Amino acid sequence: MSGDYHYKQHTHVLKIGRFFYWMLAFVPISFAVAILTADKTLIFVAAILALIPLARILGYATKEISLQSNPTISGLVSATFGNSIELIIAVLALQQGLIRLVQASIVGSIIGNILLLTGLSVFFGGLRYKKQFFNKEVAGVSSTMLIIAVAGLTIPTMFSFTNPSPNHIMLLSVAVAIVMAMVYIAGLVFSLLTHRDLFDASDEIRAARERPNITIRMAALILLITTIIAAVESELLVRSVEEAAIHIGLTQTFIGVVVIAIITNIAEKANAVNFARENKLDISLEIGMSSAIQIALFVVPVLVLVSQIFGYGFTLVFSMFEAISIFLAVLIINYLSADGTCNWLEGAQLMTVYLIIATAFFFIF
What we know:
Blueprint: H1 2-9, H2 18-23, H3 26-36, H4 40-67, H5 71-81, H6 84-95, H7 99-128, E1 132-133, H8 136-162, H9 166-194, H10 196-200, H11 203-208, H12 216-248, H13 252-264, H14 266-277, H15 281-310, H16 320-336, E2 341-342, H17 344-362
Helix pairs in contact: 3-4, 4-5, 4-12, 5-9, 6-7, 6-12, 6-15, 7-13, 7-14, 7-15, 7-16, 7-17, 8-9, 8-15, 8-16, 9-15, 14-15, 16-17
């Protein structure tokens, strides 16, 4: 057994799936398109397709490091790189003044992980198993964190209606961002240190533990290289998105809420569905809810603080419809997680709500 572990630990094969290996062809294709043509639509499409396998590799490398690290390091790596592509795209977009695109991608990632990812998992898992069970205590902790995220993302929006002073709004956004980051850190301490047994208690999580396939040094190198390539692809995407949106006939809001949010999280959705079909719904729910929490309580505060330092003008004032969409998504997932059981119909209902919201965003400018 130890010999097998030693071998697996030193293999250089990335087990990311054949589909993602084929998708890697879009990385050189996107570079060639950017060099040989000025067509922004082609550049945008090629870049966003190239980001799909890169997101998968980042997730894979992050998992490999987590498997070989203590819980604290594992949590920090997950927080830093778990949504790194969204963070990179957002920072580059802020540099270009595309604040609406950034806000839309944040909203899209949150509702996409809560409604679409969870809905797909519950639906496809429910097609195989009549009723599935999950740890409602763990889900309850995550649900509470999401409620805090809703408060942090909507209170500045409500405040802007009563006090439209830009200075006050910016100060409030910074203050809320700091508090949200502190709550996120507290959540990491709770789940990784003081109450780690609660999150390790389920048989599903124990059964899903894997042995590492590559060394931690190789995983770190892959993480670094992939992050650099993803940053280049994100730059191509951001620089072409305005013209591409016009040519394709989509608004930046819709591209942020639906296209970018789905593409950058497609690997997580595939993993979550696979776990649900193996009757490991605890893991599927944790993937979706943890990713949404990371976006709201980690990525958003980072963007607010970066914007404050460099003067990008990003605040936590979202449109009323965006705020309502996040509120509804969190309300529904809280109701779903209350009893610890679910079936395929509940998954279909979650996806239905997501499709309704996405369709509405198609008409919002």
